[in-house]
Here is the input.
Amino acid sequence: MWAFLSFLVSLEPVPLLKLLVNLSKSMSLYGV
Here is the structure.
């Protein structure tokens, strides 16, 4: 999972905050 995040960050380092927010929402929805 972290490898996937690192991959996204390497592609687009700017919207990192937005990505983290969406990830947090997804985790909350799936109860991870």
Q: What stands out?
A: Helices lie at 2-11, 16-30.
